[in-house]
Amino acid sequence: MQTILVVDDEPNYLIILEELLEDEGFEVLTARNGNEALEIAEKSDINLIVTDMQMPGMNGVELLSETKNRWPAIPVIMVTAFGEVDKAVSAMQAGAFNFLSKPFKNDELIANINKAIEHHAVVRENIRLRNEAKERCSFSGMVGKNRKMQQVYTLIEKVAPTRTSVLITGESGTGKELIAKAIHYNSDREGAPFISVNCAALPDNLLESELFGHEKGAFTGAISLRKGRFERADSGTLFLDEIGEMPVTLQAKLLRIIQEQTFERVGGSSELSVDVRILTATNKDLKEEVAQGKFREDLYYRLNVLNIHIPPLRERMDDIPLLAAHFIEKFRNQMDKPNLSISSEAVAFLSSLPWDGNIRELENTIERASILCNKDTITPDDVQPDTLSSNHPEIDSKFDIDDLFRSDIRLPEVLDAIEKKLLLRAMNQADYVQTKAAKSLGITKSLLQYKMKKFSIKKKPKS
């Protein structure tokens, strides 16, 4: 039950509002002045304050200011006398959710209260998610409390202080470079360089030069000496991403530097010594690559002294609320949207999706939603994941858009009409059992309820 604190120095007015709001299903607390209101708020879990503007002692604006200092998430609705518009504007600037001028209609008051309480619920949920994301669940930029991720953290803590080579495995988009950085920044090399190379991003000849450097004149275009990544990573860590894409010719040179800590630049003859810890990552099965002769077996065992496997996002769906809060915080700062938030229905929708692209896809989806959302609150309608854009040939082959819709019809109208019909059909087929209907549609029950509210679909009609 939502709790509303009503503050006014007129006892009769308090009685009238208390009865009205209790009839609407709210728990109502009352106070006759600002100081009494603050004492009640200290001891109670308040969802909303409705206060008169003019009161003896601490007036409504002063109560608003003190409330925002102590409990910034609690919305405050100001009630003003007719003609006090200038004071009401000042109150809005000070952080009031809204103001009502006396006399006002009961429906107007209830509508404003419902909006304020809904806003408060979203703000509180985002604060909770943000606080959870700042706890120990964050490990050098990684976020997650899932049991499998806790095992990953434990491995990082154990292997970081050593010189051991680590092979990080996992699907694309799972955050393999974050694991490598966590190992580096939790080791005694944290003050030294962390250098990364994507072995799949460069042609073979450029990759060799990028890794080992080259002497002046070593090849056409080598107009000066260039140090490679190994030299730049001296005393630090070199992270070789997509190691499975490294050509066999370079694998032999890599094996040598792991064994002897020496190498030669391209076109050079002098041996150079480096102290580099090598971390590698792949989304391939390197054992299978070894069996097919595409990867050196001796190098595989040198790199895979310890393996850290990152689970795909679909195996740690309980982390999605934390990840969502983490990315909301990121885009709140990047996009200069200090009030950016995400609704609980949107979080539930995110938790129902397959996430073939893993955390990278989730981040892209939330970034897209942060741009598309209205009033800085992301709803399920703003969520457009890449995984939902895949082709469905069984639908496409039978679907002629020109036969179904006029050329001048707007996309939102089409989508809403189709969505509503699908929801009604699913509800009818499920005999209005929401859990069953949600399952048939491939969405969560909370998202179904959100859609029902959006399209004014009531519960099972009375026969």
Describe the structure.
- This protein is an alpha/beta fold.
- The protein has 4 domains: 3-133, Response regulator (Rossmann fold, 3-Layer(aba) Sandwich), CATH 3.40.50.2300; 143-311, 3-Layer(aba) Sandwich (Rossmann fold), CATH 3.40.50; 316-389, Helicase, Ruva Protein, domain 3; 400-454, Homeodomain-like (Arc Repressor Mutant, subunit A).
- Helices cover 46% and strands 13% of the residues.
- The protein is built from 20 helices and 16 strands.
- The protein has helices at residues 11-23, 34-43, 60-70, 85-93, 106-133, 147-159, 176-185, 204-212, 229-232, 248-260, 286-291, 297-303, 320-334, 344-350, 358-372, 393-396, 401-404, 411-429, 434-441, 445-454; strands spanning 3-7, 27-31, 48-52, 76-80, 98-101, 138-139, 142-143, 166-169, 194-198, 237-241, 262-263, 272-273, 277-282, 306-309, 341-342, 377-378.
- The strands form 5 sheets. Strands 2-1-3-4-5 form a 5-stranded parallel beta sheet, sandwiched between helices. The protein has a 5-stranded parallel beta sheet with strand order 9-10-13-8-14. A two-stranded antiparallel ribbon has the order 6-7.
- α19 crosses α20 (445-454).
